[in-house]
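Hi team,

Filling in the usual template for the complex we talked about on Friday. All components are listed, including any nucleic acid strands or ligand strings, so the model treats them as one assembly.

SUBMITTER: L.P.
PURPOSE: interface mapping
COMPONENTS: four
RESIDUES: 302
SEQUENCES:
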Amino acid sequence: MTETNVLALENQVCFAITVAARATVALYRPILEPLGLTHPQYLVMLALWEENPRTLRSLADALRLEPATLSPLVKRLEATGYLRRERSTTDERALQVTLTSAGHELRQIAETIPERVARTLDMTPASLIELRDTLNSVIRATEAAGSTAPR
Amino acid sequence: MTETNVLALENQVCFAITVAARATVALYRPILEPLGLTHPQYLVMLALWEENPRTLRSLADALRLEPATLSPLVKRLEATGYLRRERSTTDERALQVTLTSAGHELRQIAETIPERVARTLDMTPASLIELRDTLNSVIRATEAAGSTAPR
DNA sequence: GGGATTTAGTTAGTACACTAACTAGTATGA
DNA sequence: TCATACTAGTTAGTGTACTAACTAAATCCC
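RESULT (copied from the run log):
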């Protein structure tokens, strides 16, 4: 009987998921580069196209990132010209992030991106939706695990 | 009829995959921290437990990482004491990476990690295998896309 | 045999992504 | 009311992860 190696690299979900994530981000790189965006910056733009003036805290929650990670990232997006950073007038602690006109206009170009990426991946819409749902279940599982004591 | 937003953050596979990857790595953090390892460093150890003296180039290919990324990472593993770095005697360009006794001994402890992570995720072995296979198909798709001209 | 090319690894520069520590507003409650 | 606690964001430090540019060794091949 052949004993399966639990430590074999190719058997690890954690290896597959990190490689797949890096490979996916790499797919976006040539598409986003002409727009002056990195992949995390693109995700910030998606979040802003959904809800326009919003705080850094709100963005951090939506993107599942630490505010400390988002803070310099948003500064770079301001330097590129896609958004403005200003203190909220109602709460001086909060940083209000607002799309500029360039940020709004970028949306028209971005509309074509998901279809281009899907075409490059050559996967059916159904299998992409299934993958996304499976990943979301993994995310929910890790969130549930985070609230319980580690073993 | 409701028009689905192609740019909605929650619809993006690329968002789901990066969040899932970060969440998975976060799951390993408290487990690996006592061993003095980060997640990428753990993957290097897995690769070395499969094939022991091997070159940096061989590791980079196995882990799908750039040699430039691996170079400092392997230096940190040497500083921790899990491996030795020395030039190959047959090819002076190549860097031979060899496990130390501490590196070999670590394997016994690591054997328990996959089961602990799977338990925390609370997913069935079958669904984990299915997820891994789906991710591997994504990786293959991106590799195939990389060899063709970008659109 | 020796110049041109390829390959292995390193270094520099940019950009995440995390934790820990900090500042400064805001809310709470005895 | 006013000390205390909480919340929002920033900064510093460490560790990936990429591209581009570099050095040095090995291989090609005329």
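MY TAKE: Chain B touches chain A through 65 residues (CB under 8 Å). Strands of chain B lie at 54-55, 83-87, 95-99.

Thanks, L.
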